[in-house]
Specification:
By secondary structure, the chain is α/β, with parallel strands linked by helices. The chain folds into two domains: about 5-70 and about 175-220, ATPase, nucleotide binding domain (Nucleotidyltransferase, domain 5); about 80-155, ATPase, nucleotide binding domain (Nucleotidyltransferase, domain 5), CATH 3.30.420. Helices cover about 50% and strands about 10% of the residues. The chain is built from ten helices and five strands, in the order H-H-E-E-E-H-H-H-H-H-H-E-H-E-H. The chain has helices at about 5-15, 30-40, 80-95, 100-110, 115-125, 130-135, 135-145, 150-175, 195-205, 215-225; strands spanning about 45-50, 50-55, 65, 185, 210. The protein is globular, with a radius of gyration of 20 Å.
Length: about 230
Amino acid sequence: MAGAPAFWRETAELLTAGQLFGDVIALDDSRPVLELATHGHPGLVLHAGTGSFVAAHAPDGLLHYAGGTGWRFGDPGSGYDLGRRAISKALLELQGWQLPTSLSTLVRDHTGLLHASTITRHFYQHDEPNRQIAALAPGLLRLAAEGDHAAHQIVAESITDLLKLSEDVITKLFPGWHRDTLRAGVSGPILTHAAVRPLLATRSSLNLRPVDDAPVEGVRRLLLRLP
């Protein structure tokens, strides 16, 4: 589950009424991908979709969660962060303060608008601004994969901030561990994208392996390990 843990635990408890469903357990939505990345062993997973987080299984068996603070406070590497950075630079280009790049065209095409002022109002007045901003990520990643410099720079800056967070987690939870022996994975459509994989290989000290299985497979494995 995502969102408020207390709410979903209460919902799960209601499902057991009348013993219709048997035991029902509510777990954080980071647990399945962490299980797929580490198979229950010490290690960590980096995830980036609309939001982002780092989840870790420490050597002492405790689980830890880093990031995931939401669009207002962070989530580097996420779809929202990619879109926000692209829009920020595109607006300065459209105001005439920076040379135009592919980002101006991307944002104009996305909104159907031409001028910085109207584009700004569009996002501030939209009913679902977060979704609209994150929706720019696929186009930005496509441009980066095609070798576009401006798009690649935006993606690199955002992903690097997420990697820095993972380094903080490793330093605190895995002191003295050799990085090449630590189980580590990446999940979500952004970190497994063709434009991002080379960045991970050159900017991370970890041997980051993509999580290919669906999260429901992680749920199945977690259930199999329950006492």
